[in-house]
Amino acid sequence: MFKRPGVLILCAVLLFLSVTVLSDRFLRGVQLDLTEDQLYTLSDGTRTLLADLEEPVEFRYYFSEELAAPYPSLLSYGKRVEDMLSAIAAASGGNVDLVVIDPEPFSEAEDAAVEDGLSGVPLGDGSTLYMGLAVKDQLDGSATIPFFASEREAYLEYDLVKLVASLDQKAQPKVGLLTTLPMQFGPGGPQAMLQGRSQPYVIYQQLDELFDVETVAPGFDALPEGMDVLLVIHPPTLSDDQLFLLDQYVLGGGRLIAFLDPHAEAQNPQSPAPSPSDLGGLLAAWGAEMTTGKVVGDRGHAQRIQTGGFGPNAVQSFYLWHAIPAEAINRSDVVTGPIESLNLASPGALAPLEGASTRFTPLVTSSADTMLYDVSRAVGLADPAEIARDFAPEPGTHTLLARIEGPAKTAYPDRAGGETLVETARAEGDIRVIIGSDADLVDDRFWVQVVSFLGQSIPRPIAGNGALVLGLVEHMAGSEALLSLRARGVTTRPFTVVADIRREAEARYLAEEQALQAELTAAEARLAELEASRSDDPGEALYSPEQEAEIERFRAQMLDTRRALREVQRGLRTDIDQLGATLAAINIAAVPVLILLFAGGRLWWRRRQTRA
Known about the structure:
The structure is a single chain. By secondary structure, this protein is an alpha/beta fold. 39% of the residues lie in helices and 20% in strands. The protein has 3 domains: 36-166, Glutaredoxin, CATH 3.40.30; 174-301 and 319-385 and 395-484, Rossmann fold (3-Layer(aba) Sandwich); 496-533 and 543-611. It has helices at residues 5-26, 44-51, 65-68, 72-91, 108-115, 156-166, 189-194, 202-210, 240-251, 282-285, 384-389, 413-416, 444-447, 465-476, 480-484, 496-532, 545-611; strands at residues 57-63, 96-101, 121-122, 128-129, 131-137, 142-145, 174-179, 212-215, 229-233, 255-259, 288-290, 294-298, 302-306, 315-324, 342-345, 350-352, 359-365, 370-374, 399-409, 428-436, 448-453, 456-461. It has a 7-stranded mixed beta sheet.
């Protein structure tokens, strides 16, 4: 049929170009996400939120694409944001109108970006780079993301959905707070308030600023109406009636965050007995358990504390107080992912029950170098050295904070079905609960330093405890769409081959540098010896022939070594450039070549079949 290869290649090229043009014209709404973490596939929660929008929403995405061109990572992330916004607009059924604006310097578009509340990054030439979003609805509701920070890339979808959900929020979320800790008053409790020295916990102050906080009295016989989330921190001993109210609240869709503790040191640091808290049989009904009468000692995450001694014993590792690093915090969760550190005190251990119907997701874990101590060891002024001497590591890690979600049954099946109780009592339901095994994390002394400046108290966090509590409350008080979201993968992938090449070259470079330093030291020692034996006669030469020869040899060695170092660096650059050229060739040429091969192979096969 086609007897000349040139005609075959020309037809294949025309076919490729035709398919490209037609797909760009008619298949823009069709998406195929082949990324490992499904970066461009919207979650079910996002689709639900978009479907429930009651009025159109306008997305104004300001992206200085031309100014970002010299910065590949920034340009790539800006395109990633635009792709995500396009996916949201496409899935909204016309409810989201996306407008992409490139605010050129000193233009009206730049003025509009500033008016919409965006923050730009000043560049060296006097221009400003913008990469932010302004969202508006038809009822004057508005919200902005001033600048898309690449550190939040894994939480991009969550941040966008949260922004849209905030448009429908008419008032501050209502938070019920049930606690026995003096959060409203600080150390000293109500007595300190009466004496005029009240200092509420920083976390309580922040909660009160961001939410409508309603205190739940320890003797409550009903829960506040209209709560978005119930925050329980070291609760009192609850009666069966009170536990049943919590049971029904959670089964009915109420969101609950509970920080329990086998011994709350913030309750009464000088108490001679443990100060525990629990939720009766509710944890078991939710598919989890917490150690009773045990606290987790962690040598791997032990805090270093001042003991009041002298010399090497002035600062010791205290295994019962944990300094949780980033690697022990769940990075794939939208709340805990950005948190870099936490400080806990004598926490318990959480674990899922075998055969539970709920999903148990650890958010914070211990190291693998731990031991469960009797809770009595955490009471009073424990001796860090004595705790360390008795340490006998046990295998495995312990969960210190967890999400519990999914179908659950009531902890009171008889009461839920009884005729004497409320007719709407529930026997089962889907629950959303956060459980922590330490309540001391809200105490100021474990995570924040409060300093006075010009008559004002300024908190300076030394750990992420406050961000954790506020983030959890904000997240749990949000929409169902927000609750269903998790952190997505990031598009920036490490170039492992390039990194290996670089490490190998740097190792060689370091070896050359060390060799140079050794030669320099030896030459200096030899010159010092020759200098000491030099004659002081003014009529003689400044350096002897031996010294001059030594100096010349040293200089030659210096030149040779520097030349070798340049060769190593040149080789490093050459290897990386060659690898980059190879990758570019594969990315650019691979698809057309594959199409040509496929078309050619198909035509060859049809020709062969025709001849046969």
